[in-house]
Amino acid sequence: MIAQRIRCREISEADLDAVAELLTRGFTGRSRDYWMRGLRRQAVREVPDGYPRFGYMLDNDGHAIGVLLLLYTSRTSGGETAIQCNLSSWYVEPAFRNYAPLLTKIAQRHKEVTYLNISPATWTWPIIEAQGFASYCSGLFFSIPVLSRVTKGMTVETVAPDARSIAGLSEVEVELLTRHARYGCLSLVCRTRDGNAFPFILLPMRIRRGWIAPPAMQLIYCRDVTEYVQCAGAIGRVLLRHGKLSVILDSNGKVPGLVGLYSSARGRKYFKGPHAPRLADLTDTELVLYGP
Fold this sequence. Notes:
CATH class of the largest domain: Alpha Beta
Strand content: 25-35%
Structural class: alpha+beta
Largest sheet: 7 strands, mixed
CATH architecture of the largest domain: 3-Layer(aba) Sandwich
Distance between the termini: 44 Å
Number of helices: 7
Shape: globular
CATH topology of the largest domain: Aminopeptidase
Number of strands: 14
Number of domains: 2
Radius of gyration: 20 Å
């Protein structure tokens, strides 16, 4: 009997085809093209120095038998740079499941990093909590923004993927909005009559189960949920032209000032680490790079 040589190592660009094949087998609802599109985006995005670009894989004599995708991002928290890592798609071939803890142990070894799990299956919630993760988002609020009042004099601009500057926004915000527009998001700027500018990023969503299934967008980014409440009426009328009725917000309950419905049946999100994530910021996560 030949002993198996299994090791956990970083994923390299040379591994992407094998990783995509493995994930396609593991996630039957996702095509190989879905995985390759996301992996190509990971290949060219900015990653903080010293952290893996793609994540880790289990290697059995040169064959990919397990994978855990990681998306590292630098964030500003309290005036300091903080590192955030979205623990994304995880799969290990059934015959090698006893090696799976190697992936999670290595992936979560950095004490200075805040780790996120933004798409846990319902049945995994107790397991994730047992691993030391805490919930920062308990559900989703399905808002109907067109039913909100439009602030007098408010206008809405769509941000082009190649925009160089946007009046009223910082260079960092402009780069954030244009980058996400290139990922296929809808980036908007709402302006008030007195010249205030409010940036928003939304992503078309597929709601695959449940009794509520409106044509929807997920709120990926705003500075604060109160700004979305203020601009909801104007945004809702723009989205109607895109055939979208609802905007979904990460939430811990009903959102004052919005018409809609809160549900805790889905949408729970977890973190572990020194900096609790805030609601209304899913930028540069798997939801954006890979898609809903």
